[in-house]
Design goal:
The protein has 247 residues and is α/β, with parallel strands linked by helices. The chain has 10 helices and 10 strands. It is globular, with a radius of gyration of 17 Å. Bound molecules: S-adenosylmethionine.
């Protein structure tokens, strides 16, 4: 399975437009807003925390957090250098490390918060996904929180060659394991976390979300927070929050 990881890293090294800017351009400003706002809400930042964005690509989330909480100490890691170089072009203050999420060169109990947006579902084995989540657990301080998003099996399955896991039809160098809500909870628990939030996000069709703008964002957040079962069926992504030492 190492060759799949290598193939994905090479894809990222050659990518002309790294994931973050691609996401904003192709999926739309308001789709991006609802996704990052959900992550930010779940992180519940107070203002001066040490935060890791694991698999940060070109720093879409880092920039979003920095604009709202400039006093936080931000760290971004990605296993490809190409996207990390793009973060350097942004006007944000962040420590950047080129590293695999399954082997973070960071000491234990270092961060208050860890976010990993659309990353762990791209790791090709259960063992690697658990290893990454266990790394997040290790680098978090006691009572620290992790916020994870992954692609939702209930809405993405037609995009994957093989249904549940396999290569994206639109990008055959990229692998995905599509998560069901209960699997995401189970994996976080296996890594030691207590899961305190689990929901679907980006529920509205893209064209409605982008047409209704701020109202669309509010409606989407409302569905995620108050109609969880519907959001599991409709959400493009699943979002989970886990707490270290909360059991
Ligand atoms: C779908 S993109 C999401 C990027 C970013 N989190 C965002 O939401 O804008 C997945 C990112 O994870 C990175 N990635 C994938 N596997 C990784 C691994 N094993 N270690 C570190 N980064 C990885 C890729 O290079 C890519 O930048």
């Amino acid at each position: 399975m190492e060759h799949i990881k290598r193939m994905q890293r090479l894809f990222r090294e050659k990518e002309k437009e790294p994931f973050g800017s691609f996401q904003i351009k192709v999926m739309g400003r308001w789709w991006n807003e609802v996704e990052l706002k959900n992550v930010l809400n779940a992180l519940a930042i107070k203002g001066k925390e040490k935060i890791l964005d694991a698999g940060c690509a070109d720093g879409r989330l880092l920039e979003y957090i920095y604009k709202k909480f400039p006093l936080c100490e931000l760290y971004g890691t990605d296993f490809a250098l190409n996207p990390i170089r793009q973060v350097l072009k942004k006007n944000i203050s962040a420590h950047l490390i080129c590293a695999d999420v399954s082997e973070l060169p960071i000491k234990d109990l270092f961060f208050d918060l860890v976010a990993s947006v659309e990353v762990i579902f791209m790791l090709p084995t259960h063992e690697q996904r658990i290893k990454a989540l266990t790394e997040f657990y290790r680098v978090l301080k006691e009572k620290g929180s992790v916020v994870i998003t992954v692609d939702n099996y209930n809405t993405w399955f037609e995009e994957i060659d093989g249904g549940k896991e396999g290569f994206f039809k639109s990008a055959p160098d990229l692998y995905a394991y599509l998560y069901k809500p209960e699997e995401l909870k189970k994996d976080l628990e296996e890594a030691g976390f207590k899961v305190v939030k689990l929901t679907g996000i980006n529920n509205l069709p893209r064209k409605y979300l982008n047409r209704f703008k701020k109202i669309g964002v509010l409606l989407d957040l409302f569905i995620s927070n108050f109609f969880k079962t519907l959001s599991f069926k409709r959400g493009a992504y699943l979002l989970a929050k886990g707490i270290k030492g909360g059991s």
